[in-house]
Amino acid sequence: MSTAEVVAIGLILVFALLILITGVLYLLPMLLRLMERSKARETCIPVPEFKEVPASVQAPKQDEQEIIAAIMAAISMEEEARGVPYGNFRVVSFKRIGRKRV
Amino acid sequence: MSFIETMKDIFLESGFYSIFANFMDGGWKTVVMLAVSCVLLYLAIVKKFEPLLLLPIAFGMLLANLPGAEMFHEEIFAGGHVNWPAFAGKDPALAHITPGLLDYLYLGVKLGIYPCLIFLGIGCMTDFGPLIANPASLLLGAAAQLGIFLTYIGAKLLGFTSMEAGAIGIIGGADGPTAILTSSILAPHLLGAIAVAAYSYMALVPVIQPPIMRALTTKKERSIRMTQLRTVNKTEKVVFPIAVTLLVSLILPSAAPLVGMLMLGNLMKESGVCERLVKTASDSLMNIVVIFLGTTVGATATAERFLTLQTLGIIVLGVIAFSMGTAGGVLFGKLMCVLTKGKVNPLIGAAGVSAVPMAARVAQKVGQEENQDNYLLMHAMGPNVAGVIGSAIAAGLLISMLG
């Protein structure tokens, strides 16, 4: 084998092998991600479809408790004035009108 | 036997008598070799040039050149083969020889055991994370192997045989165990000189590389800051050694001993299930093998083999190999810098010559000379460990083509 052949074959093969490993290293994370995704798909439990609940029937948040208390107090006073027994009603929902929620 | 006769016999059997009685007939060479070993010991102890290897090498050289000590006999390994009958005392031609301690220990070099065990330890200590995070750095490791093949041409032009030229060229890989394994197969008679040259130049990486790096790059290129590497997960780190071993060994089986052991060590480390083995391979085993390897490689540097013009040629070619390897890496780094529109600092290409982690530290240091806030170390570790794989592949190729 001539000197030029040894040098040419040597350099080409060193580069070729390392380029091959480079390719594998670029593919590796992709393959791992694909495997993780398919594994997740196999193991996941079907979740019932989520139905959007109207804002008016959503559970009252902490700041809404005060509003509900104020509404109940106002209605109670009105009912009391009309002679309706106390506590004969409950606020199921309320809707804000003409003001953006903060 | 009288007292005087006994004293006379002791004197006649002494090394001093052997040196001075045959001073003009080769005795001076022994003195020179003992002086060379002392210089190497000085470099190892005082100048701290790769002391872990240079010290045993220098002392092995000293032991092998002590007249009358009979610790190493190159006749047993003449022609590049192990003369097994000589070990059993059954070779009539070598009946006068009693194998010495270093003869037995040298079998580990001759049979290619020590370099591979050292690679096992290196694998246990190497983090291929920076390489996996930036796979393109493998190309820098490939480019830095240019020195091996250009030196091969130089050695051929100087009159070395193809096998000798291949063994000398591998110095450019800047990887001691690889150089030792290759030369023990291709040119065992040059092993001592090649090992001394390889380890001496590896210690001189901070001196040899910076001028070449500065000469081939502009201030602007040296100041380039590289983006932070992504984090590599454990699965990638575990799959990497298996994939590399399969790929390299199936394509180039002659590289399997070095690459295989390197990757075995790395797999043991990354898998996290072999802590005891990792500890042993990277600590006790590694240290034991380094002692045996260094001492026996040094022992091959006997006066007859070392004090030749060939050794001078190897010393000169060795520095050329290192320089060419550095230049190849830096120039390829420049190419990558252009292709990525200035995202790669070409200095990290110089780390492709192996010499882990010294070459990466040099890239960091030269980079910080231009920009104090530039941290290239982790980026340079990619090409650095790629260089280890690259030089092992180049060694396998040379053994396959020339052996």
The gist of it:
The complex is a heterodimer of chains A (102) and B (403). In chain A, 61% of the residues lie in helices and 0% in strands.
What is the H/E order of chain A?
A: HH
Radius of gyration of chain B: 23 Å
Q: Which residues of chain B sit in consecutive blocks of at least 5 with pLDDT less than 50?
A: none
Give the N-terminus to C-terminus distance of chain B in angstroms. 55 Å
Q: What portion of residues of chain A belong to β-strands? A: under 5%
* Alpha-beta content class of chain B: mainly alpha
Largest sheet of chain B: none
Number of helices of chain B: 23
Helix content of chain A: 55-70%
Question: What is the averaged pLDDT score of chain B?
Answer: 92
Tell me the total number of β-strands of chain A: 0
Rg of chain A, nearest Å: 36 Å
**Low-pLDDT runs of chain A:** none
Biggest sheet layout of chain A: none
Assembly level: heterodimer
- Largest inter-chain contact set: A-B, 23 and 39 residues
Number of strands of chain B: 0
Described by the principal axes of the CA atoms, the overall outline of chain B is globular
Strand content of chain B: under 5%
